[in-house]
Hints:
Blueprint: H1 11-18, H2 24-39, E1 45-51, E2 65-70, E3 76-81, H3 84-99
Amino acid sequence: MSWHSTRPLNLRLLSALRNDNDGMASKGLTKCWREAMAAKPSDWELRGVVLGPREADPAIRGPRWAAWAVGPNGERLQAEADSPHDALTTLALRLRELEA
């Protein structure tokens, strides 16, 4: 099962993946997702990647991509970037720091 079949995605990301003729965008996102999954502590859960932060209202979208994970006590770790790949990569780095 791929990450995009079980995780929330927004329409812009789906559109980008559909228009990706050589499959590189989806392969790159899958790689970034797997790296973030490998970087997280075992008791953390990787939750998603969307366009714009969603803390206040899920209907509000910002101009940047946000990737986030949730810890065992409900704590949230989020990373924002100009692309979903960069947001996931930054989140992976922050999750690795939790293990250090």
